[in-house]
Structures are given as C-alpha cells and as structure tokens.
Amino acid sequence: MRNPGRKRVPDRQVLCGILFVLYTAIPWEYLPQELGFGSEMTCWRRLAEWHEAGVWQSLHEVLLAELRAADKLDWSKAVIDGSHVRALKGGPNRPEPGRPRQDRLETPRHHRRRGHPTRRQPDRRQPPRHHPTPRR
C-alpha cells in the first residue's frame, strides 16, 4: 500500500469550504459536512498551509495586476490599514521634541506602572499552585 490513510480532499473543494466560512462568517466547527468541503480542520489547516506558502499574497498580486491592466481599479475608494504599514524612524508618526507621546496621554501614569487600581493583581508572595502529582 503506497498511500495509507484517508484520501486528500481536492483543493477546489477545500477552497469552497474556506470561502463558505469566510462569506457566511460561521465558526469553523459549524461547517456543514454534507456540503462536501471536507472537515472544518481540513479547511482550516489548508488555509494556514496556503497562507504560509504565500498563495493568498500571490493571488492578491495577480488580481491587482489584472484589474490594473483592465483599468478597473478605483483608487478613490482605497483604504490603508495602518497596522500593516511600517513606520520608519523619523517618519511622520514620530513625536516632535518636547511633546508627550500619544499613548502616554491616553494611559495615566499610575495605571501603566502598577496596573489599574481597581483591577485585582495576582499576589506574587504566594508560590504558584501546582496540580497534585498522582501517587503510584
């Protein structure tokens, strides 16, 4: 026997399962088995594999190139997500000399140092609790 175990679910079916979950916004575990997309774990793992392999980035670039070639891109409706844009030193996000940083304005000093005064902090004087070891 050359290939023991289950037969691999075809990529097209798994892609349909991934798109179904993303489009309907259902949790992975509620992916209906009767639709033939494979299990939720199969779809989730394949999504992760394809992400690691750069498939989604390549697909995005191919789609952008085709839309550009067809003159179908409307950049007036584009949005840039700041969490994915690298801020270089000396860029516009750097505070001016003598001005406090924005995050320090939003978080009071006493909250930064010791945590929020109304939130219970763990007591660090007690040793951590361990599960009892089974006796033999």
Automatic annotation (TrEMBL):
Positions of the UniProt region annotated as Disordered: 84-136
Biased composition (Basic and acidic residues): 96-108
Highest taxon in the source lineage: Bacteria
Coiled-coil residues: none
Residue span(s) of domain Insertion element IS402-like: 4-60
Basic residues biased stretches: 109-119, 127-136
InterPro entries on file: IS402-like_dom, Transposase_6_like
Protein name: Insertion element IS402-like domain-containing protein
